């Protein structure tokens, strides 16, 4: 009660007294704080019962006012006094001792406001960055400490200052072998400071308390591993933030994660190296990712995994009762996806070398150690759940470094052409591709969706590993000596079959079945002048018409239902093609195929494991469920949209002369259509039934028909 009365009386005196020059006023408030420690014997009274918070606030106001009254960058006498008399060093000592109780909180607040409000750069001053470094080491020492909020605010303002001037981070990389010297200002600066300013406001006892750390630090270094690198650094700012990510207070965790995000983005190579080698950041990322993944239920509905709302890290607001009512495991799934998003964003923002190290840690400690056994298991329920989760992970990852490591994990790093003997070289890749043709339709569909998602990621290795490496030498083409090759007529061998004259396709095509060259070219992206039509390259409209003519009229239903013709697919394909062109633009794919003369056609052609499974599936399209067929054609459609000359030639050109024993997408479809024609004649009233099934699949007719027709007549034509 007496101390409160004294405080009120002092404020009244200050209000009535004439205003002093800023420096005198500043010194007055600092002396008032130091005199408290000289005159007060009760060190158990909380700091809030003293005038210390008020004096500190006044000192901050004076420093802010002084800077506002001076030209930019000019240091005023009050700031000079603070630096010269090592006031921050003294405050650190008082905060560390927490004398009186609550003083640490006041010191943290003073440091935070000082760095936030003063515009001139303070951290380059040794009498600022040295006590700041010491105060950083006090943060995060105790979990759920009463000063956590002030600690995280202080650490975040330091991170923000380093983001503004990244070179300053070098002041905070503390050399382990020099730490005792850094913490020993008595011999180096203490005497000099006393000579320059007899009254620093720090009593002898406080100075001694400050330097009691020196022997402990020296002992810590001397007892460390003898093999430790003398040039290694402590990154205490990162260490303190990592400690605070373990706080039970979610707001503190988010702030600590934000601070780490700022630090990883600093371009200084020394900081990046220290971050990944001398801190536990990689362990934090991967351990927490593993923890959240293992908290997921063993069995989850793939639809729930696919459709759960996207959650950005830090915005994870939830209601346990509501989440549990939607589906079991929703809360755990959102927590996992939220932390995955943080890892992804952190790696995306990180300095390049640091990003590579963190991404590799995620690959080794999460994908290989945890996910691979889940994907390789034999339980169908486990395979389905883990594949659905992997599909969601692929969809969510956007950072280049993490995507690269994930792709290497899934497909391996091999780039040489596949052979039938090497398809099992990478067990996980082999297993995933085999799952596209699994006995369980659900597993097949989910794995095909995974590959469809993978194909659309902006990573060249995915497409090269899955498809392009098998087509590099164009040895799917017939190999004849140059002198035995037939002369070309209109870009084709003279004896090539003209599919438009084939009796199966006919010349009397309806407008729905035939597309003129001008119509197609008008909807395609403009051709580059550097890539004009080359000799031997089939005209686009002929290719399109060849595919349109494949299915006879009696097996088609699109022209009976308005708005469902091929033109609808064409518009959507055109949009997707433009998207793919944007992704592949930097890969220099546009152009003509590799010159035939430069291809090694003596190598036996193998289409590759991935295309083999897709073609096998496509060949059984008449006997598979509709949903499986939709997914098979979706993957092949995505591959067909890729603007690579060899892929376009192999998948889309029906006029190429295939080497003996080779098949292409067109040849597979021709065989399917041949089988379809035989089946059509065995089904009475085929066309009306086909139309009814189409309308019901589109939701235009009520349910109730038996879907055996899909297997008898072929679901491919219903797409």
Automatic annotation (TrEMBL):
PANTHER family per the UniProt record, alphabetical: FHF COMPLEX SUBUNIT HOOK INTERACTING PROTEIN 2A, RAI16 PROTEIN-RELATED
Annotated spans, Disordered: 183-232, 480-537
Family matches, as InterPro entries: FHIP (IPR019384), FHIP_C (IPR045669)
Record's signal peptide: none
Family to which the UniProt record says this protein belongs: Belongs to the FHIP family.
FHF complex subunit HOOK-interacting protein C-terminal domain segment(s): 607-699
Superkingdom per UniProt: Eukaryota
Protein name: FHF complex subunit HOOK interacting protein 2
Sequence ranges of Low complexity compositional bias: 222-232
């Amino acid at each position: 009660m007496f101390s409160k009365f004294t405080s009120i009386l002092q404020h009244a005196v200050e209000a009535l007294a004439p205003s002093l020059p800023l420096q005198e006023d500043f010194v007055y408030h600092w002396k008032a704080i130091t005199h408290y420690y000289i005159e007060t014997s009760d060190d158990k009274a909380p700091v809030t019962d003293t005038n210390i918070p008020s004096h500190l606030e006044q000192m901050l106001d004076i420093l802010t006012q002084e800077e506002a009254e001076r030209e930019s960058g000019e240091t005023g006498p009050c700031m000079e006094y603070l630096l010269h008399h090592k006031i921050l060093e003294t405050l650190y000592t008082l905060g560390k001792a927490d004398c009186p109780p609550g003083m640490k909180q006041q010191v943290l607040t003073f440091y935070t406001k000082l760095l936030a409000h003063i515009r001139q750069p303070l951290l380059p001053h040794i009498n600022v960055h040295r006590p700041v470094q010491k105060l950083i080491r006090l943060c995060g020492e105790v979990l759920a400490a009463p000063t956590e909020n002030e600690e995280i605010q202080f650490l975040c303002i330091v991170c923000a200052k380093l983001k503004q001037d990244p070179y300053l981070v070098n002041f905070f990389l503390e050399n382990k072998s020099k730490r005792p010297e850094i913490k020993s200002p008595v011999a180096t600066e203490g005497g000099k400071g006393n000579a320059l300013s007899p009254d620093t406001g720090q009593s002898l006892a406080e100075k001694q308390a400050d330097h009691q750390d020196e022997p402990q630090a020296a002992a810590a270094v001397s007892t460390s591993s003898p093999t430790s690198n003398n040039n290694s650094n402590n990154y205490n700012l990162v260490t303190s933030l990592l400690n605070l990510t373990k706080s039970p207070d979610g707001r503190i965790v988010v702030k600590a994660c934000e601070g780490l995000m700022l630090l990883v983005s600093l371009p200084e190579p020394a900081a990046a190296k220290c971050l990944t080698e001398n801190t536990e950041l990689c362990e934090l990322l991967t351990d927490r990712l593993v923890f959240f993944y293992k908290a997921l239920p063993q069995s989850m509905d793939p639809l729930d995994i696919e459709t759960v709302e996207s959650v950005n890290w830090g915005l994870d607001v939830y209601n346990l009762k509501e989440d549990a009512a939607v589906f079991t495991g929703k809360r755990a799934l959102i927590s996992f996806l939220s932390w995955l998003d943080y890892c992804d964003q952190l790696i995306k923002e990180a300095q390049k070398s640091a990003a590579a190290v963190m991404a590799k840690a995620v690959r080794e400690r999460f994908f290989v150690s945890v996910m691979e056994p889940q994907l390789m298991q034999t339980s169908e329920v486990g395979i389905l759940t883990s594949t659905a989760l992997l599909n969601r992970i692929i969809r969510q990852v956007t950072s280049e470094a993490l995507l690269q490591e994930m792709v290497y994990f899934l497909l391996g790093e091999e780039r040489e052409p596949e052979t039938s003997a090497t398809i099992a070289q990478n067990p996980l890749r082999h297993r995933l591709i085999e799952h596209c043709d699994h006995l369980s339709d659900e597993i097949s569909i989910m794995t095909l969706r995974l590959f469809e998602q993978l194909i659309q990621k902006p990573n060249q290795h995915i497409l090269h590993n899955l498809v392009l490496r098998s087509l590099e030498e164009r040895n799917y083409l017939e190999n004849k000596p140059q002198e035995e090759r037939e002369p070309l007529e209109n870009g084709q061998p003279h004896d090539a079959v003209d599919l438009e004259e084939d009796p199966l396709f006919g010349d009397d095509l309806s407008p729905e079945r035939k597309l003129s060259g001008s119509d197609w070219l008008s909807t395609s992206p403009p051709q580059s002048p550097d890539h004009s039509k080359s000799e031997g390259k089939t005209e686009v409209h002929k290719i399109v018409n060849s595919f349109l003519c494949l299915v006879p009229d009696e097996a088609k239903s699109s022209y009976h239902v308005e708005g469902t013709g091929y033109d609808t697919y064409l518009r959507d394909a055109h949009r997707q093609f433009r998207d793919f062109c944007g992704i592949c633009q930097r890969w220099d794919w546009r152009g003509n195929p590799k010159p035939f003369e430069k291809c090694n056609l003596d190598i036996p052609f193998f289409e590759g494991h991935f295309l083999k499974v897709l073609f096998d599936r496509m060949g059984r399209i008449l006997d598979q469920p509709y949903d499986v067929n939709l997914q098979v054609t979706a993957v092949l459609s995505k591959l067909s949209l890729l603007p690579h000359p060899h892929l376009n030639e192999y998948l889309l050109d029906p006029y190429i002369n295939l080497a003996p024993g080779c098949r292409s997408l067109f040849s597979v479809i021709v065989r399917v259509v041949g089988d379809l024609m035989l089946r059509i004649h065995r089904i009475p009233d085929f066309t009306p039934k086909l139309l009814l099934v189409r309308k019901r699949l589109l939701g235009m007719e009520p349910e109730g028909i038996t879907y055996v027709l899909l297997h008898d007549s072929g679901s491919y034509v219903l797409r």
